[in-house]
Amino acid sequence: MTTPLRVRFQAQRNLRRLFENLVQLRKDRPSTLTEIPIPGTTTQPKKKSKVQRSQTLKDPPLPVIPNLARPLVLTQSLNAAPAVEQKIRKWESVEELQNAVLDEGDSGGGVDVRIFEQTVRGQVDMIDRRRLEEFTPTEVYVLKRLERALLLLERNPVLLKKEIFYWLGRTKNTPWVLRVLTEYAWRTIWALETDEIPTSRSKLIGDLMTSTAIPLSEDQEIAYIGGLFWNDARSQAMERWRNRIRLSPNSVSRKFWNLGVRLLALDLNPEAAYYTIQRMQEYLVPIDYRDYIPVVMAYNHIGQPIKARETYKKMKRCAKVNGDMVKTKVYDDISMSFLDAGEMEVGLSVYKEMMFTGNKILEKIHDDAMAEKEEASENSNKPLEDIQEEVEEGEEPSPADLSLEDLKKLPYEKWDQYFIEGWMQSLLRMGRSDLVYILITSDLPKRGFATDSVHFNWVIKGFLAEGNIEMAEYVAEAMIQETIKKRSSSPSPEEKDREEEHGERLITPPKATLHTFSQLILHFSRAQRIDRVAFYSNLLSQTPLQTNSYIYNHILYSLYRLHSHERFDSAFSSMLSEPTLHPDAETWQIVWAAHRRRLTLLRNSPRTHHRYLFNEMVRTLLPPLSQQQRRLVQAFWPKLVKCFVIVQDFDGLLVALHAGVKLWSVELDSTVLREVTVGVLKSRRRYVPDSAGGVVRTVVGKETVDASAWYLIKRGVKIMKRKRGAAVAVRRVVGGKVVGGKARRKKKKLFEGNLSSVSELLTMELLARPGYASDGFLEKLREAKRELGVEGLVIEW
What we know:
Elements: H1 5-28, H2 50-58, H3 94-100, H4 137-151, H5 157-169, H6 183-191, H7 200-211, H8 218-229, H9 234-247, H10 254-266, H11 270-282, H12 293-301, H13 305-322, H14 328-340, H15 344-355, H16 362-368, H17 404-408, H18 412-429, H19 433-446, H20 453-466, H21 469-483, H22 493-502, H23 514-526, H24 530-542, H25 549-561, H26 565-577, H27 585-600, H28 609-620, H29 627-646, H30 650-664, H31 670-684, H32 702-724, E1 732-734, E2 737-739, H33 743-767, H34 774-788
Antiparallel strand pairs: 1-2
Helix pairs in contact: 3-6, 4-5, 7-8, 8-9, 9-10, 10-11, 10-12, 11-12, 12-13, 12-14, 14-15, 18-19, 18-20, 19-20, 20-21, 20-23, 23-24, 23-25, 25-26, 25-27, 27-29, 29-30, 29-31, 30-33, 30-34, 31-32, 32-33
């Protein structure tokens, strides 16, 4: 009888899975298997007696947790809890153990790490073995697996944490078996709940302990009530908290009282939460100003801002009596809750109080609130981060430049506007761009402040950062349509709702600026959504705004990442065709990177295209350059050299190196020397004959390149000595670094020597080629100068 085909396939699949599991277990197994020593015993194992050996053969093998090293086998029971005497890590509270336990989120997703600073070097009883005879074999098996996982927790915490809760879940129907767990075992299990908000694990542990009639400590009770509250058992959680308060109100701590205040506020019952604070005063429990925070926010959430203001005043009085300073985050949260409730005046007053209560955040608000006005001129080609508002002579100083005392003396309008802008920046940092949009579209116009494109650009940037792309595009397109004098045919649903609510038409949005387009194009180019980039580029062409290189850089970099060479050339050509638009150093960094990749991947490209690009760079990147642009040019110069080297254009490279030094002060460092060396060595290996008549293709390795680059450095030093004398030349060069004398001057002379040595190398290489005589060499150089756009360049040999 033959085996059915389906059964054979199933057997093969099972064998394949078994093999994969064995391979994974082999990878996870530690390379060195160690056993935890037992205190009071020697390292050499004693020989067992004949009776013990026979008993060992009869006993069933102990269960082994997968993916772990050899388990710790307990040969004897210690009924005491020797946590201190045997130097075992002991945790006195949940907080202390939480600091020692690493959750899955922080462990890198399944990485085997050690949780504890000390390993368990003794035996700790996790269960009372004397009571195991009361249970069935299945229940004993579950208990032993749970005990083994607890003992080996330090070896693989990520895996064993899941295993512990798996075996705890197996005891839901038989919770009485957990009576044999020791206090130390329960504290270890509770410490595995490391989340700030209790999860279902806290609910599971608490349910098992209450089912087994095991008393919970106060910290465990707080974690259990939190687990019930956040896992669809709010009424049960509140009832459990009330019962404990009713039974022993004088014995519970302030932390347990505060738990009830927070839970009642989260349950949108601020009256009961405030009554709980009053009961705390009756039982002489110390009151902290933080107890009032959830009550204030709950009143605002249910639409009772008057009671929220009263509670806020009591909170300030409590902080003043206790001598506490209200933290900045508390002010931010409360002011944001008032704004959510529609109380803009109260929210702003709370924010102002934060400024005048001693919190040292004024400098931070100076940097954020009075942001620069991004108003780019039509012919400006600077990045928008560098565009600053020009201040005319005789203008009043900016509030950002004033001290706190001088700020109080300003007129109310300027003082108010300053703090509103700071408040908006604070809301943006907290991810509440929707509230900022409400401020600038409804509340600010009521206070007499005109709409500003800077504020709208803040909102667009905030919505994009929060992932609310639809709202960001809605705000931006309204500004763009205002710029091109075209109104949208129908308002959006959000606009209709706001018009019905306020009973009036919304304000006219300000005109879009270059910063508006740059935010959108930058976001969509990074997301590689070229359709949206093209859409907003088309809209930008319809506006009277003059685009700049900052906008085009986003588009070019997006096409570079997409490997779209044809569209990249088209976009760059349109950029060069604009007479008032000049590519900057960042543009050329992208262009040379794209051209180097195209040559490396053997894409179709004219062999003289690199000369055309260099000619355009000479025409558009005019000196002198800023320090940041010089750094960018120095960064992409090796890519430029690589483009010349790949096509073996040594005469063009010779001219380009001298032009780079003369025009943009490029430094020929070791990276440039290595690129030139690799190109020369690769070209030479074609001309090395073999004795057998073939061609010897030598490998251009790292050692050969390093030796050649070091030779060029030393050769450059000798040339400088011969030119200017040994007194002014570099005395010593160690590992490519200049030692002795003024470092900057010697570094400059070192780079000059590198240019001379490289020029000598390229000249000798060109003269050795067939068809390159002395006259032909000079003619080739003149042709290269003409094509590279540096005909007047004088090359010094």
